[in-house]
Amino acid sequence: MAPVQNGRVLFNTIPDDYPVPGETTVYDTSQTIDIENVLLNGGILIKVLALSVDPYMRGSLRAPEIGSYMPAFTLGQPLNGYGVGVVLRSELPGVVAGAHVRGVLLHQEYMIVPNLAAATLEVIERDSRLDLSVYVSAAGMPGETAFMGWREYSDAKKGEVAFVSTGAGSVGSMVIQIAKQDGLKVIASAGSEEKVKFMKEIGADVAFNYKTTDVRAVLAKAGPIDMYVEQLELDFRSMFKLQLARFWDNVGGDTLDAAMEFANNHSRIIASGMWTDLRYFMIPHAKVEFSLDFTHVIGYNNGYAPMKNPGLIFAKSLHIHGFIVGNLRPKYRAAFSAEVVPKIASGEFKYTEDVTRGLDKVGDVILAVQKGTNTGKAIVRVADE
Fold first, then answer.
1. pTM reported for the whole predicted model
2. Contact 207/200 with Cβ under 8 angstroms?
3. E-strand stretches of 75-212
4. Given a cut of 60, is residue 113 above it in pLDDT?
5. 68, 170, 297, 339: least CB-packed within 10 angstroms?
């Protein structure tokens, strides 16, 4: 068999603002691969089938000297991200040709994974009712983030109230359904009427568009103030934020401010991937890990959204939990597979996907995710089996 094209999406230039398809990233078809004869050196050859495009990727489109909890993409090299593929050839014990694997994959059509790196991939025990794309959406990292963060930090009790921001997103929508399953009242926000409709369909008791609605008015009517007046116990147990620097149009500081204002003492805020202040990605740091700037949280179109009342954190004894799902996966992976995936497969847990076909469309999808115009979990379908 003659060598075949191995298309790749390369990191080409560092963006100042929104990534620009064709400039920030470029689709390259200059590389070929001999599928039958390429040396594996004890590893595996994967055909990439589907790739997840996520908000956090904006943070990796930066200079390498700028620190973060996620590595920077390398200029001139393929992007990488969560994906699923099929094994074409294998020299790795326990992994056979035809197996489906998921994990961090390169944004290219075919890739060789060395022996040691292959150990970080997960062989999928696929449910025949689910398309492979679901294993990078509801049954993948977004679903894991929702379930594992909730299980670890929520301490949820029936009758409590949860406020879920970005509730129509791939993480937030799962949080809503898990919270309802646990018997909580759920208030949820998103950035369009279409997304508000979806949140109601999956069980949110109160759903609103934060771009057109005063969050404080909603919380005063449907949240803690009403609950307090009627002498019902309230505890905010979930506020999942998937935010990118300058992405969610002010949902950052102001929404978090409002939640703290209307939260009961000892409430919990769970932050999964909150990104603050675009300057964090523009200024080199010698040693930087993920940090929260409680003074300025940036909104995409409106500049800085200053947090007005950080003192409420100690005044109300609020508990803020930030986490990265990879740290929780060893503890909860088995429970997620046993409890959540079957409910996704049966249709009990709903999800939406925004699938775009073609590796050459990755740049467009990255931009759509940054602008929030995708209507479900953003996935690029690279190939069929």
1. 0.81
2. yes
3. 80-90, 100-106, 110-113, 122-123, 161-164, 185-190, 206-209
4. yes
5. 339
Domains of the chain in sequence order: 4-137+351-381 (3.90.180.10), 144-326 (3.40.50.720)
Q: How is residue 374 written in tokens?
A: 């995708």
Instruction: Name the burial class of residue 50, with classes exposed (0-12), middle (13-18) and buried (19+) by CB atoms within 10 angstroms of its CB.
Output: buried
> What residues form DSSP beta bridges with 103?
83
Give the DSSP H or E segment for 345.
helix 341-346
∠ CA 370-375-376 to the nearest 5 degrees? 90
Predicted local confidence at residue 204, as pLDDT: 96
Tokens of 271: 């932050």
What one-character DSSP code corresponds to residue 377? E
The model's pLDDT over 37-60, given as tens digits with 9 standing for 90+, comes to: 999 999 999 999 999 998 889 889
Note the pLDDT of residue 370.
86
Is there a contact between 22 and 363 (Cβ–Cβ < 8 Å)?
yes
Q: Is the dihedral of CA 303, 191, 359, 144 positive or negative?
A: positive
Q: Does pLDDT of 270 surpass 50?
A: yes
Q: What is the DSSP letter of 38?
A: -
d(C-alpha 44, C-alpha 378), whole Å: 27
Which residue bears the tokens 């326990």? 94
